[in-house]
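Re: that chain you flagged

S.,

Sorry for the slow reply, it's been a week of failed gels. I finally had a moment to sit down with the sequence you sent. For the record, here it is as I used it:
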Amino acid sequence: MKSLRLGFTVSALLCGLLLGHSPAASAYSHGDSLVRWHDYSKDAFVKAEKEGKPVFMLITAVWCYWCHVYEEKSLETKQVSSYLNEHYVPVFVDYDERKDIARKYPATGLPTTVIFAPDGEELISLPGYIPVDKLMTGLRNTVDYVKNEYRPRGEEQEVREAAKMVVPGKAALERYVKDFLKLVTSYYDSAYGGIGTRQKYPNAAEFLRLLEYYEESGEKKWLDMVTNTVDHMAGFSQKRPESRRPAFEELVKLRARERSDIDAVARLQTDDVFVGIYDAVEGGFFRYATRRDWTIPHYEKILSDNAELALLFLNAYRVTDRQRYRSVAEKTLHYVLTTLYDEEAGRFYGSQDADEVYYHFTAAERARVEPPHVDRNSYAFSNAQMASTLLRAAAVLGDERYAEAGRRALEFIRKELLTDYGVLSYYDHKDGRAHINGNIEPNAWAALAFLEAYGLTGEKSYLESAGKVLDFALEHLYDGESGGFFERRSTDDAYYRPGELFVDEKPLEENGVMAYALYLAYEATGDEDYLLRARQTLGVFVGSIREYSPYLHRLSARLLARAGE
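Prediction finished late last night. Pasting the structure tokens below so you have them in one place:
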């Protein structure tokens, strides 16, 4: 919990950092950094308390452009690195490896800087690149505040009254189905598709659910919302502005200094506007667009986004028979299988870096330059997502190559990540080991992937693996008093601060995935306990539509259809 007692000095820190930070846009290799980073761990915070130093925590991701800028222009300068090493305990958080920690300190973008008092109390959290002068002012002010003014608040215990168990009936399910559609419609951009009228994120799972609902209801407006959105995502509908793209040689020079000459890089984006978030040259999708009309993307390519978007375009093709959607899906899967895939191990890599210049090269020019860096770690949730997408692609397109890659990814999860204590979060390619148990995200997505694979192939081994995951989740993560699944119950003491091994938050997205997986397990086995737990999990969220889950909407619709049979 953030301190409410900021005082003058920390207020000055806040002012200085806010004035200096740019729009947030990832992790860099910190082993040879000038900053003596500690990984997020119990030991790092024990060290800070023992030495009486504040903690400077950086949350960053390997694919993020502004994170690299922050590294090179601020953190890796001698002035900043020396000050951090002497007066702080610097803590490094890789967003992809430690989503469990990043979720606890949410911000509007990456990189994120979080500063703690020596006793671990959070003082401030800010997103974005912070220039050296603003950063140094803030760092000095914080050290002075901690030394002269800060007083520990003491241990706070938040007592939560257990909510009552709810099993939603027909009326509640009908209301959730209706309200979900109403909410999506209220935020839908009829001009350009997508959600909202500023930056555009894909929200692929939501639009996939609208496409399914069109098939269930026959109401064409849902199909129209989907096709309008995917056409703009792919750049099919927008008029392309006249380009003032620099010559190849100039682009090469700019790329060499893209993290230092950020003004020139910004001008390139408006001189040569990239339309859509789809890379028509190499395939694959970027993470989001900075404008309402899906132009000027942030150029990182994330495995999970591409798994969901390939599935969305694949199903758009299946429903409409429009070949352009098939082409996008196939080219995206080709990109994944050639750039983000370890064929020998059968696992998928996490992402490819943002590169603000590379994607302005023509197809012929790209062949002459080095492509952006690839993060070769493998994350359980996105490998599970891609495995499901590939198996569905094989079913729709009749291409056995996709089925083989999907099966091998599931085997990788089963062999390297699935343990007697659930699914581990990620596989580190450097040490060849998987890490961090007890979190809901990898378990929810792995359970769903195994169950969907069983539904598509009928192979009993997938049902057995799903059962092992669900047994763990129901024993260790399920709330038997109120329903739903807790975020974490880990035994990996070294990775967490005191009190963090168990987190009783119930994240919406992962609970939606887990609830739907439980329903599929019920359909596959006839076990009524799976059905009851799915309904009880749905009951945690069905009373509020401030946030929505396409998976809970899918589950609600399935339950209503089942009741009507």
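What I noticed first: The CA atoms of residues 79 and 220 lie 60 Å apart.

Talk soon,
D.
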